[in-house]
Write a structure and sequence with these properties.
The chain has helices spanning 19-35, 55-65, 89-101, 112-124, 188-198, 214-223, 255-260, 265-273, 288-294, 309-322, 325-331, 345-355, 365-369, 381-384, 394-408, 415-429, 433-445, 453-460, 462-476, and strands at 6-9, 38-41, 105-107, 148-150, 157-161, 165-169, 178-180, 203-207, 230-234, 237-238, 305-306. By secondary structure, the chain is mainly alpha-helical.
């Protein structure tokens, strides 16, 4: 009987989750969902010195925010728990005892100072430092107070990686590494192998930084008499310049910051999935159902993917435009400018309908809509800094605006009538849209950009629009 696909995301609670970690979780989630299998969250909290308070809760919140629902986890008990490594210490000791009994693990008798002298000696001799060259001949019985080290069996390895292809190494890279530290906590190198076996994980999807340790892991799988799972190594996500790995030190954002700014979960999933993966077509945006249907590890590239926040905003804008207006209106409830308080839903929904095409994320809403809710101060630099308007004499600008005022005063301010009158003004004034329409737009909005002019004025209404045109005329005196 074929084993059900079981994938896992196993972060350490040492800080917030950024796009690199989320991509690993997303790919593992997609593999599980595509196969009708299970996706597991496990918290690898054995390095207590690096653990950040509140980080575990933050990781869980991040996965929920992106809709990456897991079948088992710290807050969702399953048959293979507990799902925090710090609660599984007896299990590691049991597996460690098996290695001790097979003479494949020993108590490490050396102090850090002694190990440093070994390193310096190897450096002097221009040789790589290998701990296995200094194994004690008659090690003490391990009593838990010293580190427990794996007794490696150096050999060449060949293995297949679903992303990186067929890989191989020689025996020289294999060394004795710590299984359990003197504080009683296991190392990642030991614990993740035990946990994956106990939890029946079929696919290990993780970052490129673990690739160098694979020969040691394979050596340990053999010693524990375990069949290795399927491996898939994700290449790094690179910064926008493409010259180094994206990292927290570079100021990369917490994934929840994007959620707070109004990036949609479905947009984040689509964007992150295409960081290194494509389906072999030119398609750039994917629904979640399409991702589940089309995703495959063998379409993940071996080289690093560039992170481009502008592209993320473009993808998010696409998903925003696809939303029905009433659904979008519900989602942007907390993003309106303070000045919108007191305006009714019908008016705000009209405003949202005008800016939906230009909205890239919800936090832009105040900037794009503020002039619908308050009269902004007259800003003459919008004219003096305008590519076309700055070439027109002030008196001519005033004449143009007075002509527009006279025509618009007769309008019923329906979108159709406003459109006809604005187009008619182009003929009457022998002016280009870039001049006339820009002038009227600045007068009515005091913004450098706005939605369609007729549509904007229709929503603002006749009284507000005419008042603002008159205020602009007064400022041109």
């Amino acid at each position: 009987m074929k084993q059900s696909v079981r994938t896992r995301f196993a972060p350490s609670p040492t800080g917030f989750l950024h796009v690199g970690g989320i991509r690993t979780a997303l790919f593992a989630w997609l593999v599980a969902r595509q196969a009708g299998g299970q996706f597991i969250l496990r918290l690898e909290d054995t390095d207590k010195n690096r653990e950040v308070e509140g980080s575990a809760e933050h990781l869980i919140k991040s996965l929920h925010a992106l809709g990456l629902d897991y079948d088992e986890g710290p807050d969702k008990p399953g048959p293979y728990g507990p799902y925090r490594q710090s609660e599984r210490l007896d299990m590691y000791k049991k597996w460690a005892q098996k290695l001790i009994e097979q003479d494949r693990a020993y108590a490490d008798p050396y102090t850090p100072e002694e190990v440093q002298r070994f390193r310096e000696q190897a450096q002097k001799e221009k040789k790589p430092f290998l701990y296995r060259n200094h194994r004690p001949e008659n090690p003490l019985k391990w009593d838990g107070r010293q580190p427990l080290r794996f007794k490696s069996d150096p050999k060449a390895y060949q293995w297949h990686d679903e992303v990186m292809g067929d890989l191989s190494t020689g025996p020289e890279v294999i060394d004795d590494f710590i299984l359990i530290k003197s504080d009683g906590f296991p190392t990642y190198n030991f614990a993740h192998i035990v946990d994956d076996a106990e939890m029946k994980i079929t696919h290990i999807i993780r970052g490129q930084e673990f690739l160098a340790s694979m020969p040691n892991y394979l050596n340990l799988y053999e010693a524990l008499e375990l069949e290795p799972p399927i491996f898939a190594t994700m290449p790094h996500i690179l910064n926008e310049q493409g010259n180094k790995k994206l990292s927290k030190r570079d100021g990369v954002k917490d994934i929840l910051d994007y959620v707070a700014q109004g990036y949609l979960p479905e947009a984040l999933r689509s964007f992150i999935a295409t960081l290194g993966w494509n389906d072999g077509t030119t398609q750039e945006v994917f629904t979640t159902d399409e991702l589940i249907q089309k995703f495959s590890l063998d379409r993940v590239g071996k080289s690093g993917a560039h992170f481009d926040e502008r592209r993320l905003s473009w993808v998010n804008g696409h998903f925003i435009r696809e939303l029905p207006l009433d659904i979008l209106y519900g989602k942007v409830a907390g993003y309106w400018p303070d000045e919108a308080t007191g305006y009714d839903d019908a008016y705000k929904q009209q405003v949202l309908g005008l800016v939906q095409e230009r909205l890239k994320f919800f936090a832009e809403l105040p900037e794009l809509t503020i002039f619908f809710f308050k009269d902004l101060p007259i800003d003459l630099e919008l004219i003096s800094g305008h590519k076309q308007l700055k070439k027109v004499e002030s008196e001519d600008l005033k004449t143009l605006l007075e002509t527009a005022e006279a025509s618009l005063a007769e309008s019923d301010f329906s979108t159709t009538d406003l459109t006809n009158r604005l187009n008619g003004l182009l003929t009457i004034t022998h002016t280009k849209p870039a001049v006339l329409f820009s002038l009227i737009r600045i007068a009515t909005t005091q913004a450098s950009a706005s939605p369609g002019l007729a549509e904007t004025m229709h929503v603002l209404g006749k009284e507000v629009s005419m008042h603002r045109i008159q205020s602009q005329l007064a400022a041109l005196d």
